[in-house]
Amino acid sequence: MKLFRNSFLLFIPIVLLGFLSCSNFGSKVIHIYCNETNDVYEVLQTSENVRVLRYNNIERLMNRVRKGESVMILADNYPEETLKLPDGFFDKMKSKKAHFYVEYAQQLPGIVTETETIKPKYQRAIVNSSFFGKQVDSLAILSVSGLRYIPAKVPSAHIVAGRVAGLDHAEYGLPKETSPLLFEMPEYSGIVATTSLSKFIKGRYAPKREWQFVWKAIFRFLIGEDMGSLKWSSVVQPYFGRNETLPEDVQKQTLKRGIDWFQNARMLIPENYDQVIADAIDPTINTGFLTYSEDIPIGDGSNGVFECIFSKIDESGNQPIGVVRRADCTGETAMAFATAGKALNNKEHFKIAENLLNYYLTKSPATKNEYGDPNHGAYGLVAWGFENFAWYRANYGDDNARLMLGTMITSAITGNEDWDPILMKLLLAQLRTTGKNGFRGDRIDLPDLEKNGWRHFYDRDFVSFSPHMEAYLWACMLWAYDKTGDPIFLERTKNAIKATMNEYTDGWRWMNGLAQEKARILLPLAWLVRINDTKENRDMLYKAIDGLLELQGVSGAIREELGKPGRGVFPPTRRNEDYGSHEASLIAKNGDKVSDLLYTTNFAFLGLHEAYYATKDERIKKAADKLAEFLCRIQVKSENHPELDGGWMRAFDYGRFEHWGSNSDAGWGAWAIEGGWTQGWITTVLALREMDTSVWDLTKDSKVGDHHESLKKEMLPGL
Known about the structure:
By secondary structure, the protein is α+β, with helices and mostly antiparallel strands. The protein contains 23 helices and 20 strands. The chain folds into 2 domains: 30-223, 3-Layer(aba) Sandwich (Rossmann fold), CATH 3.40.50.880; 238-715, Glycosyltransferase, CATH 1.50.10.
C-alpha cells in the first residue's frame, strides 16, 4: 500500500505537466530555446497571457511541442555563431502546425542564404510592410546595434536593412539595395530573422516604443492574439522621467555624477598610454578607438584626457572611447574639474584641473616646434591635437577659444597664474590672424601660416557670418579688452558682432543646424553688454535671446532647427547613399523634437547663464532654470554601463523622452558623449549655478593683462 501511495505521488506531477503543456489550459504556451538571461525570455516572464517553457536543447524542444503551439529559437551566441538547427526541424514544425520564430539560422528550406555574415557600416533597419500595425508605419527606421545578418533572397520582408537617410522615417523611400532582416515562411507558419532581434534590451535597440510594437506583432503572429503591454527597463535611460518629482538637491547630485563620469568612463589617461593610443589610431580616418574596460587605470590628468565616448553601439550595448587628445576638450575638462571642485568642496579636483592644463600647455607638443617659434606665423597658437599631423596642423579659432575660456576659468578657481603668459600669447595669436573686419574664418592650418605669415591674415578683407566658428573668439577678445584696456581687442570685434547681427539669421552660414548658431551668439552679446551697456547692445542681445527661446519648449528642451536652404555646411543627409559619409544634423526636418547637446543645448545653457548675470532679467533666468531642470532629467542613467552613467549624449528626443536622433554624423553621432564640448560645459554651468556666479564675474580679477604690453611688442610690432 505504501509503495502504491509513493507511485501515485510520483504520477501526479507527470499528469500536471501534461495539463500545463496543453495549449488549451488557461493561456497560450511558448516553447523557447535560449539561456535564462535572454531579453525575450525575461520580458515574457512578466506576461500573464502566455506560459513559457525554456529549453537548453532544440531537439528536446521539438519533441515537447504539441499541435498548434508556439516556438522561439533564439541566437544567444550572436553575432559570433549562427544557429545550427537539427535536421527535420522545419518539417516537424510543419507537421505540428506550430507557429515559430527563428533567428540567425542559415538552414532555411527553399531559401538561398550565404555562408558569410555581413557586418554593414551604414545600414539601419527599415520597416517594409504593415505587419506591425499603425503604430510602426512602413518606412519607419529602427536601430539594431552592432547589426550583423545572414544575406538571404526572399520575395518580400517585413524589415529590411539598408543605407537610408532620415531621423525615424525613410525620407527618400527605400534605398536601391536592401537585405531582408525579418520575413515570413508561409508554408511553415514561421517568421525568420536573419539577425538577432532578441538582444533588443541589452543591445539598446531603439526607439523603445517602436520595438515594443515590433515584438507585440511577432508574438501576435505566434500565439494568434494580442500579448497586452510589454514592459521592460532600458539599460540606458534618463535619470528622471518627464514628470517625475525631482529631489531638492538635484542640481548638486547631477553635477557630482557629471564630474564623476570623467573618471568612471576612464577619460583621464593613465601613465604610459602613449603607445596604446598610437596603436589605436587608424590613419585612414585620423582617429582611433579603445574598448572601454574597468581595468583601465584611472589617470590624474597628468597625461591628458581622452576626447569622448563615440556613438557606435555594438551588439552588447557598449560604446568605444575616442582616444585623441584635443586642446579644446582638455581646457573644457580642466574647467569642469575646477568648478565642480569649488562647488562640491573637493580640492582633489583642483589638482586634476591643474594637471590637465600643465600637460597640454607646457608638456605636450601642442605649444612647441612651429607653435613655439617666434619667427613662424603659428607662434602662440595651440595645436588642435597632436596624435598625427592631420590634427597637429589644424588651427580652429573656435576650438582655441574654448581652450582659452577653460584656462581663464581654471586659473580663477585654482589661483594658478602660471598659464597667464600662454593665455595672453594665445589671445594675441588669434587676434593677429583675424582679418580687418573682425572675422577669422573656420581654420587656418600650419602650411598656410608658414607660407603667408600672420600679417596676411590680419590684413584680410574678409567676412564670415558664422557664430559657430566666430562667436567664442569674439567673447575672448572682449574679455581680453576688459583685462588690458587695449582697443585693438575691441574695435574689430564689436564691428564683426554688429555686422553679424545685421544678417540675423537668413544671412548666416549654419553648420549642423541654425539652432547652434543662435546659441553661440549669446555669449559675446552678453559680454558686450558687460563692456558697454548701451541700448543698441541690449537690443542685439534681446533679439538673440528671443530667437533662441522660440525653440524652447515646456520641458525646457531646445529644439534643433534647420536654417535657410543652401546656407548649411552640414545639413541633413539629402540622399540615402550619403547617410554616414559626413557630419550632419540630428534631425531630418524642422519640427522634429530632438535636442542637440553637442552643438546647441550646451552652449545655449552657457549663453543664457551669462546673459542673465549681465542683465538680471528674470525672464532669462526662468529660461535658464527650465533648461537646467531638463538637463538634470536627461542625464544618462545606466548601472550596466559605467562609461555612460552621468554623461549627456548628443541627441535627446524630448517627444519620446529617450536618447534618440539621426546617427548620420560621421564623427560624433547621436549617442556620443563629448568630454569637452558637452560634458565640460554642462557640468561647469551647473557648478556656476551652485556658486551663484558667472564666468565674467568669476574671472574679473585675472592678472593676464600684466603680460600684455611685452607680448604685444613681440607679436604685433608697430600696432
